[in-house]
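Q: My labmate handed me this sequence with no annotations at all. I'd like to see what the chain might look like in three dimensions before we decide whether it's worth expressing. Could you predict it?
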Amino acid sequence: MNKIFMLLTLSFVGLSSYAQNFNFGAITHDDYSFDKNKLDSNANAIVLKEFGTSSIQISEVTGGTELIFEYQVKIKIYNKEGYRQANIVIPTYKNGSREEFINNIKASTFNFENGRFVESVMDKKAIFTENKARYTVLTKFTLPNIKDGSIIEYSYRLESPLLFNYKTWEFQGNIPKVYSEYLVYIPAIYNYNVSLRGFYKLSENKSELTKECMRINGVPIDCSKIWYVMKNIPSFVEEDYITAASNYKSAIYFELSDWQMPDGRKQSYTKSWKDVDYELITDKSLGLQMKRKDLFKEILPSIIKDAADDLSKAKAVYNYIKKQIKWNNIYGISSEDNIKKALDIRSGNVADVNLSLIAALSTANLDAEAVILSTRENGNANKLYPIISDFNYIVAKVNIGDKSYLLDATEPLLPFGLLPLRCINDQGRVINLKKPSYWMDLTAIQKAITSYIVDAKMETDGKLTGTITTHSSGYAAFNKRKEIKRYNSPDEYVEKLDERLPKIQILKHEIKNIDSVENSLTEIYEVEFSKMADAGKDEVYFNPFFINPITKNPFNLNVRTYPVDLGSAFEDRIIINIALPGKFEMTEKPKDLAIGLPNAGGRYLLKTSLVDNVISFNQILQFNKAIYEPEEYPYLKEFYSIIIQNQKINLLLKNIR
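A: Here is what I predict for the chain of 657 residues:
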């Protein structure tokens, strides 16, 4: 990650508005005839050019400083799939009386008709706003008269009092871009940390000094004028098995470090972890809640009365908190009110739940710490310097002997020591009440493991009867238990499962260890399959891939520039034994396979045999890593391709009379 420090700040002389670097409505024949094959033959639309500029200015209304962001873009639309680019959504943010505003919206569609470009100007009445969330407002509009071949162009101005994050610029979007340029004016009294994220690098980057760009109390202030340019940028295609896309899109980010006024006043925003540690452990909604041993002193003896060692104590406390406080599905690293209230009303956010867990573990004289983290969909936390707003979740860490266990009591169906996959994201920061904080890896300690055992008999009419036994552990068991608990009873779950399996009728069922989360979940189904083959014929075709068949490759990009993140290692085992009605020989079958990924990253094994008139089919699919780097992507793609092609092949059995 690049890190650039620049002197910056605030009141503009002759720069109240910055001109765009291309004229609105200046559509050319080159724009209209642009060959998308130069960038992406599959593109439905392409950004021909976009330009943005940001500056800090003095508000004519309030007299205070504000960030002014101006944006203009020109987009070529090729087909109906590209029409969605004409639906524009611009998010703005508010925090109390501090609110961002959008104005000066201008939008037009240009179509080439009868040898000339015809402009359709968007009616201002097409613009409306929507309150998306507590702190977010969406400004929306749709450009008119969209056709295949249309060129759309729009621009707007954003005024923001929120200076901490200078306007982020995303070079990479959901369609390719020919040219993207961002120009920033940073006054010399502001100091920003600037970082370029993503796979693609800048085509151009230059800067120059703009003298006396603003005045504060009559004192002239210079500005750094900086250009960031990227050309011929592929679209960002979000495939399966990814964390937050913002981790990987090529973009420029700005975070305010400090500012210093001409009179010597200085405000620092980027702090050391030592400073942040003190703030967190003295915070009444975080650190002080970790110390609330008084809430558990009386009840603790009954909680741990059967515990023979520290690990048993920790498990007993963990199970108690899981039952005591129901998570309200709200994230955060701070208690909403305090953990006493959460205990009283038996409900709270993630911090209420897990800060209560930490306090209870500490009351049992166990070494408990807090771990703040950013969830998978929230993106990675910045590790160069502390930005507390990057963190949106908190879990407990308990150290017993030479082992440490991460705990999240928000999920009653999670076993001890297993975090929900939403938490498995890069690293978390461990907060200790007595020691400096530190980073730790957040990794899944268990695989998602499922095994299927089918023992069946084929009748002469092709029907199969028998049992399917499924064993699930790790994340596979957690997900299955959550699915079962969605229903009023296991019977209702099985009833709905039966409806979803049109070729299988469930006759009887037994599900073991639904609530015993430390054990494997076992499902036993007595089933009858609908007719799968005509066993009375001389030749019988039969497809053995009726459990979790792989029909679609999840990896279809030519190049993937970001990791494949499964969250955890994964394993599926399938054993099928089918007794045949009479004597048969196997004349065709799917090819027996034993293929692997490089560096022991995974494997797929398949073996089919016919012995004593019983078809035996054994299949293993393993992924031994949670994360595969972009250079491993071609191997994953080919791995799946081989499996899919092989699973298209049927068994051919010849009846021996």
